[in-house]
Amino acid sequence: MSVAIVFLCIFLYSLPLAWSQTPANYQPGFLYTFCNNNSHAGSTKFQSNLGALLSRSLNNESGISSFSMVSEGEDPDKVYGLFLCRPDVSKHICQSCIDAATLKIVQVCQHKEAIIWYNECFLRYSNRSFFSNLEMKPAFYMWNTQNASAPDKFDQKLGEMFQNLTAEATSSDGMYAIGQVEVSNFLNLYGIVQCTRDLRMSYCRRCLDEVVGYIPKLMEGKKGVRVFVPSCYIRYETYPFAAVEDPIVEAQVPSSISPRGRKGRKTKWIAIGTSLSGIVVVAFCVYYVIRRRKGADPEEKESKGDLCLLDLGGGRLDAEDYSSETLQGDMLAKSKEFPVIGFDLVYEATQHFSNDNKLGEGGFGPVYKGTLSDGKEIAVKRLSKTSGQGLQEFKNEVILIAKLQHRNLVRLLGCCLEGNELLLIYEYMPNKSLDFFLFDSTRGLQLDWKTRFSIINGIARGISYLHEDSRLRIIHRDLKPSNILLDGDMNPKISDFGLARIFAGSENGTNTAKIVGSYGYMAPEYAMEGLYSNKSDVFSFGVVLLEIITGRKNAGFHLSGMGLSLLSYAWQLWNEGKGLELMDPLLGDSCCPDEFLRCYHIGLLCVQEDAFDRPTMSSVIIMLRSESLSLRQPERPAFSVGRFANNQEIASGSSSSVNGLTASTAVPR
């Protein structure tokens, strides 16, 4: 009943204030909650202190301010709390936001440490003293998916604005600044920076400098960005967001009302609020007991494993720091920066999902080409009603790819959840997928050596970003040519994150009971033991690299009579000093022999049997760029994977697709 204790305190103390002061129909804009999974709910005494802190201290009826630090109880059950409101909101909106945050944070987090962010405020509590500490984790990022025109000038003005705002914030007692800058006659930038006021000025500057520095690294050229960390936050937009989001201003009391009249009105509202709060408390207790007896909703239990941001239009988070959130339609519907596209619009764009517009089909369902009313071409994944794995893939795609931004990753433009329809809308790739060209004797002529080398480098950069540069570290687990899309300039974009997994950066690997992927591309430790790590993707990359320079498929290669697999044949020629014989004949004179042999060498290093011996993707990029770098000799590759696949399995495992939809094969252990 410890959670009930917190709820009882909060309902008793916060509801009268909420009824008396919250403007009508006003709802704060919820963004995200962090629950520290390493600090699960403590003793009843801790919960009681937490309830008292949230109800009596944070929701203080007198002297409402935009910032407060409080503590409650004694060690080891002491609780520390802090709230901060955006400086441009009225005190009533600030209080309304804190009320909402107070109620929600104990609903979603039964932990000793939690943070909740809203548009107008954020609230934090912990069993440790964090006051005056500079804390940069967890980090929560959001951005507008639209790119700014004239990005060079845009970025220059953006930098100038944040430089000025940071200087102003770190020289004022309020430790915040709001401002704007003119980019052109038709475009202004609006920005805000704010630190928690317990920080030293030097800590505030350091915090703001660091979060501003994330923009060119991760979200360069976006029309709007928000970055939140516990000690500070920044935001910019191309519109005056404060005026748009906060249309309700503090009500002015008419001068004709006497002080006595004001007091009488306030007393009246408090009495009403207290009566209603008593009713709510009783109702809550009945509800709580019923839930305890019946057990939690099965759907709520099932959803605990999903990692999701409310605003799917952007955002990054560190998998090591963040807790689980459910992926629900109402979250997507509330999204402001990630487009939720109506079904009717997609239905018309795809000409009623006509077969003429169908691009491919796989485990998720069919993929269609569409054209929006403004002429923009899109690719639409439609969840098949008979798909067994489609719902999980849909959740993975939204959860992961919406947070990732890189020129070598396919861009997710929006989604649709209406009725039984689950749709993902992507940028359209006019040149389809890599396998469409690579394994065709006619279309393969369009892939000269310069193009292939560029594709190899692009794939390496994309995987390296997933493994090492992204805040949300990802193992793709299904890298193959059919999942490499090509834009109009033949630039590669990695797609299909339905099987991807978040990892914590360790190369020791993680076990899975269900092995999924495609024959010929799975690392041996994954196919045989269910152990996957970032080195699993390195193996897949090595296979793809060898396929690109040879124009031959690894899966089913043994049927050609030249060897058990492409890897075994490549290893044989390498040891015999006949590496150039592996070259795709279609390359002709366009190929640079030295670059070819270097790629050949790197490919063999990536497919070594022992995962420890394989290079990281960042090392692969360096090896590809440096002609003078000496490469170590590769060991025998793991070329037995997929060796016993029958023809039907080979066809399934290597089926081509368009815009990222693949038919991945599940391999029994």
What does this structure look like?
The chain is α+β, with helices and mostly antiparallel strands. The chain folds into four domains: 2-126, Gnk2 domain, C-X8-C-X2-C motif (Killer Toxin P4, Chain A, 2-Layer Sandwich), CATH 3.30.430; 140-239, Killer Toxin P4, Chain A, CATH 3.30.430; 338-427, Phosphorylase Kinase, domain 1 (2-Layer Sandwich), CATH 3.30.200; 434-667, Orthogonal Bundle (Transferase(Phosphotransferase), domain 1). It is 37% helix and 17% strand. The protein has 19 helices and 23 strands. A hairpin with a 6-residue loop joins strand 2 and strand 3 (79-85). The chain is globular. It starts with a helix and ends with a strand. The model is unreliable at 1-24, 243-337 and 640-669 (pLDDT under 50).
Descriptors:
alpha+beta, Killer Toxin P4, Chain A, 5-stranded antiparallel β-sheet, 19 helices, 17% strand, globular
